[in-house]
Amino acid sequence: MLNKNQLYVIGATLLLLLIPLIGMQFTSEINWSIGDFIIMGTLILSLGFATEFISRKISNKTYKLAMIAIFVIVFLLIWIELAVGIFNSPFAGS
After folding, report:
1. Which top-level group of life is the source organism from (predicted)?
2. Domain coordinates in residue numbering, the chain
């Protein structure tokens, strides 16, 4: 069963994914496929659930903040790689 914070993570993810969905209705510059929504939803949910798990399990504030910062940095690096390809991987974006 999901707790209250996990439901907030799911709700926030859905709200964040509404931004490009609504933007696609007004401009042709935003062109996400269903795969883009699935990948970004997975990334956001992973970050949210990892943050929620760390918040529950780690009591030391310094370690908690450090772990969350590491997860945010990894999230941003993956997002940037998928968007523009800073590392020239096979998954690089346009």
Report:
1. Bacteria
2. 4-84
